[in-house]
Write a structure and sequence with these properties.
This protein is mostly helical. The chain has 6 helices and 2 strands; from the N terminus they run αααβαααβ. It comes from Moheibacter lacus.
């Protein structure tokens, strides 16, 4: 993978993270209000909610639009190579070793791209 594409993908992920933070904050406030006497319940509910929002956000945008807001701003899109599986893509995306996987792959691709049969390209 070319270095500039990796940088663009990283910036796109940061943009998407900011959008996700804006989506999560209202839920954080509501759940913290109703669970203030039970921190374990708060952590449980927030963990479940954050996972649903993260997976839903990336799954919706990548499957339906072939891009996310961050990728769109950075001029990137996802192409399907063969039988693309966006659920697999998003499960592997949040794997702890995914971020360094591009270093171990000869083509510099991420595990989530390889397993899901997708590729991120620049839109000209």
């Amino acid at each position: 993978m070319e270095t500039h594409l990796l940088i663009k993908r990283s910036i796109a992920y940061m943009i998407d993270s900011m959008v996700l933070l804006i989506l999560i904050i209202p839920f954080f406030m509501i759940i913290s209000y109703f669970t203030k006497s039970n921190p374990v319940l708060f952590m449980f509910l927030m963990t479940i909610l954050v996972l649903i929002i993260l997976m839903g956000y990336f799954y919706f945008f990548e499957k339906n639009l072939k891009t996310t807001p961050g990728k769109k701003i950075m001029g990137l899109k996802i192409i399907e190579l063969k039988n693309a599986n966006y659920l697999t893509r998003n499960i592997y995306k949040f794997s702890p070793l995914n971020f360094i996987s591009f270093l171990l792959n000869a083509n510099g691709e991420f595990t989530h791209d390889l397993k899901a049969h997708t590729k991120v390209i620049e839109v000209k």
